[in-house]
From TrEMBL, chain B:
Keywords: Amino-acid transport, Cell membrane, Membrane, Transmembrane, Transmembrane helix, Transport. The keyword Ribosomal protein does not apply. Residues 20-208 form the ABC transmembrane type-1 domain. Belongs to the binding-protein-dependent transport system permease family. HisMQ subfamily. It comes from the Bacteria. This is Amino acid ABC transporter permease.
Amino acid sequence: MEYEFHWNIVFQKMPELLSGAFVTLHVSVLAMLLGIVIAILLAIAKMNNSKPFCYVATVWVEIARNTPALFQIYMAYFGLGAFGIHLSPYVAVLSALVFINAGYLTETFRGGFQSIPSTQYSASKSLGMTSIQTYRYIILPQMLRRIYHPMTNQFVWSILMSSLGILVGMSELSGTTQRLQSLSFRTLEFFIVAAVMYFIITKLVLFGASLLSRRLFKGEI
Amino acid sequence: MNSLFTPLSWDDTGYILTGVWNTITISVVAIVAGTLLGMIVGFARAESNKTVNFLFGSVLDILRSVPLIIQLILFSTFVGAIGHPMNPFVAGSIVLSLYTMAFMSEVFRGGFESVSKSMQTAARSLGMTYWQTIYHIRFPIGLRAVLPSWMGVALSVIKDSALVSVIGYMELLRTSEQLISRTQQPLEILIGVGLFYFIISYPLSHYGRYLERKMAI
């Protein structure tokens, strides 16, 4: 192998890479939070009997689940231009991720909600609980337990998929890496470091999630 | 004066179809190779002890925790740097297959582990050899159980194949991107592309969910 590695330049640019990693984390957290909020609304709409809401929710979910993430990002970045809406790369990637997260989480939430047998509602009602109490103490804790793991996976997925920002010139971790390597021509070094950073980020997130789940569910999961 | 941009016309059909064909080719290659490799690795993991499993697991973990796009760039730069540049199709197929393998092996491992120990003991006590047990009992039962999740992974590979465009493979999304920069008609082209993925993915994902429900009962 004749390739010589030059790591110095990578270490010099470490602060920029780290700020890129911060943007990655930032965009995925935001995409996850917004996705959760929309997914709750969509799940309610989907389980609702009123036709138009249910229809919108179904179309949203199916499009999000059945087209590539890159397509969504292109759609947000190039496609919306046709309507005169020009999003910045950050907003384009964020909105694409929110769109997909919401689509996937809707099904997760719906599945979690429906997995709780309806006898539990009658049981808690016969114990004299109000419906708010039923949700607060009976339904939601069980639901959270079932959707926790899929939600963690979805979060990791959004971190990994935010790397598509490289294709629309966003300055998150992979976009920053791309820019720095094109300035220095140390492609391999920069991308190896980026890969390691993504690995560390996902592992930290999974570790944090499992710590949190131990606190939340007191070990029973 | 002629405009710099020319609108979309029927002459572009061939170009788009090349993209469609390339997307299908690389997805099929990755799904087939990834499934076979995943089956082998999944079986090996279901069979082996904790230490071996841990080593296997950590390697596969890397494939699953690094974004596919980074893996693609790294691999194609790496083979270029050591002096064996590959064409985008080969490089893309290798990376996408390995990526698929990482997910498939988990799916298959779950399937093989779902075949209960007592069933294997029963088969052995009927006089079957180890390989007969695998061939007649564990594979058919284990594989049947994983069909819905297998379909889920296969569908996500079709969608992820769009990323191979980053190393220069002319798959559907890249052809469309080039058409967009020529025609400046992003919306029409992108909607067409989206429809293509949707038409492939939607029926299969519903069939997968149907199978899942059918098997759950």
